[in-house]
Backbone:
C-alpha cells in the first residue's frame, strides 16, 4: 500500500509538471440541476416530457372521459452538465480554442440518462492583421464542430428554467456545422452550413414514416444560414435567413423504387435584445418557419401526386427578467399561428403541430440567487393549444442549480 501511495503521488506530480509545460490551458465548468415538475394533463414532449411542447388533444374513452386529462408529476436531474474549455497557442495567425460539453439527457427518449454530446467544436479567432493587434470590434471567427443550431440565436435565448428553453416558440437544438463570423464596429455577419445528428428530419424511409439523418444526407446539400446583426452596449438585434434541403423519400432495399426528388424549406427570423442595468428584454419572430429539426413548429406535406409543399407557422415570443439582487422575477410570453390550418389535402404529414390552429404560452418565474453559485427557481407555465377543441396545460416546477 505504501508503494502504491508513493507511486500515485509521483504520477500526480508528473502530470502537474507536464501541465505546467503544456501550451494548452484547461478550464472545467458545469452545473447540477435537479428539477421537479407537475402537469395538469398529458403533453407532447420529450425526455419524460421534461421538454414540453404543448398539451395533447382531448381523446375520449368508452365512457366519454378524456384519457389525457389529469395531473402527473416527475423529478429528474438529467440536465447535469460538464464542459471543458481548452485554450491553446496561436496557430495560422489565429487565437485557438476548443470546447467539449455533455449532459445526461440522451440523444433520444430511449437513451435518456445516457451521456450526450452537446457541444464539440474548434474555434479560431483572427485578432491580428499583418502581425498587428486589431480591436475586438474588428475581427473574424471560424467555428467547426457541433454548436448551436443557427436559428437558435443563443445570445437571445429565453431565461426560462425547464429543458425546453422557450421551445417550440424558440428553437432549441445543436448541429454539426461550419460557421464563419465577421465583426466590424458593431456589425456582425454570420454564415453557417449545417448537418444533422440528434435532431433529424422526417420523411419516408423504405415507404414508412420515420425520423432519420438519411433525408438530409441524400440531398448532399447542408442546411444554410445567413445572419446580419448589430451590437451596441445595451442593444443587440438582427435578422436571419435559413434554407433547408432534404430528399423526403429514401430507399435502402432493392425491391423498392428509389426517389431522388428534393424539397427545400425557407425560414427567416428577426430578433433583438435590450440589456440594461436593471432588466433584460429579449424577443424574436419566426416567419414562414418549417423548423421541426430545431424543436419548433411547422413541416411539410406529401400530396397525392407525390409532390411536396410546406405548411407554415408564424411565431413570436418575448422574455423579460430582472438583472440585479437576490430575487429575480421573469416572464416568458409566446404565440404561434398555423398559416395552413385545416389543410387536409395530403397523403403524409411531416413536422410538428399541424393539427393546431394556434398555440400560446404564459410563463412567469421567480429565481432566488445566492450569488455564490446556488440558485432556486419556481415557475408556472400555462400552454394553451388551439385544437378543434382547445385545451390547456398548467405546469408547476421547482428547481435548484448548483453552478461550478
Residues:
Amino acid at each position: 500500500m505504501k508503494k502504491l501511495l508513493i507511486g500515485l503521488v509521483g504520477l500526480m506530480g508528473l502530470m502537474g509538471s507536464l501541465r505546467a509545460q503544456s501550451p494548452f490551458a484547461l478550464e472545467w465548468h458545469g452545473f447540477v440541476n435537479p428539477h421537479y415538475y407537475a402537469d395538469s394533463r398529458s403533453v407532447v414532449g420529450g425526455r419524460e416530457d421534461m421538454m414540453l411542447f404543448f398539451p395533447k388533444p382531448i381523446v375520449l374513452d368508452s365512457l366519454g372521459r378524456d384519457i389525457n386529462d389529469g395531473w402527473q408529476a416527475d423529478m429528474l436531474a438529467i440536465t447535469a452538465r460538464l464542459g471543458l474549455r481548452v485554450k491553446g497557442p496561436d496557430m495560422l495567425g489565429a487565437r485557438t480554442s476548443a470546447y467539449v460539453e455533455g449532459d445526461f439527457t440522451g440523444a433520444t427518449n430511449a437513451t435518456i440518462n445516457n451521456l450526450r454530446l452537446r457541444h464539440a467544436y474548434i474555434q479560431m479567432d483572427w485578432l491580428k492583421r499583418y502581425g498587428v493587434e486589431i480591436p475586438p470590434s474588428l475581427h473574424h471567427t471560424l467555428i467547426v464542430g457541433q454548436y448551436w443550431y443557427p436559428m437558435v440565436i443563443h445570445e437571445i435565448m429565453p431565461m426560462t428554467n425547464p429543458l425546453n428553453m422557450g421551445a417550440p416558440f424558440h428553437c432549441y437544438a445543436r448541429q454539426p456545422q461550419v460557421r464563419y463570423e465577421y465583426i466590424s464596429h458593431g456589425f456582425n455577419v454570420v454564415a453557417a452550413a449545417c448537418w444533422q445528428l440528434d435532431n433529424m428530419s422526417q420523411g419516408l424511409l423504405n415507404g414508412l414514416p420515420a425520423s432519420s439523418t438519411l433525408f438530409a444526407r441524400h440531398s448532399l446539400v447542408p442546411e444554410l444560414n445567413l445572419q446580419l446583426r448589430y451590437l451596441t452596449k445595451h442593444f443587440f438585434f438582427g435578422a436571419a435567413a435559413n434554407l433547408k434541403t432534404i430528399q423526403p423519400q429514401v430507399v435502402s432495399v432493392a425491391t423498392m423504387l428509389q426517389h431522388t426528388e428534393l424539397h427545400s424549406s425557407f425560414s427567416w427570423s428577426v430578433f433583438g435584445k435590450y440589456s440594461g442595468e436593471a432588466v433584460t428584454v429579449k424577443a424574436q419572430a419566426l416567419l414562414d418557419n418549417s423548423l421541426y429539426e430545431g424543436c419548433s413548429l411547422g413541416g411539410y406535406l406529401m400530396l397525392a401526386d407525390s409532390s411536396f409543399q410546406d405548411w407554415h407557422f408564424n411565431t413570436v415570443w418575448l422574455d423579460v427578467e430582472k438583472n440585479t439582487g437576490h430575487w429575480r422575477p421573469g416572464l416568458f410570453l409566446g404565440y404561434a399561428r398555423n398559416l395552413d390550418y385545416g389543410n387536409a389535402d395530403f397523403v403524409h404529414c411531416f413536422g410538428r403541430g399541424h393539427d393546431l390552429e394556434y398555440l400560446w404560452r404564459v410563463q412567469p418565474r421567480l429565481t432566488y440567487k445566492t450569488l455564490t453559485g446556488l440558485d432556486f427557481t419556481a415557475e408556472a407555465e400555462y400552454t394553451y393549444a388551439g385544437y378543434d377543441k382547445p385545451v390547456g396545460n398548467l405546469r408547476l416546477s421547482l428547481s435548484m442549480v448548483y453552478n461550478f
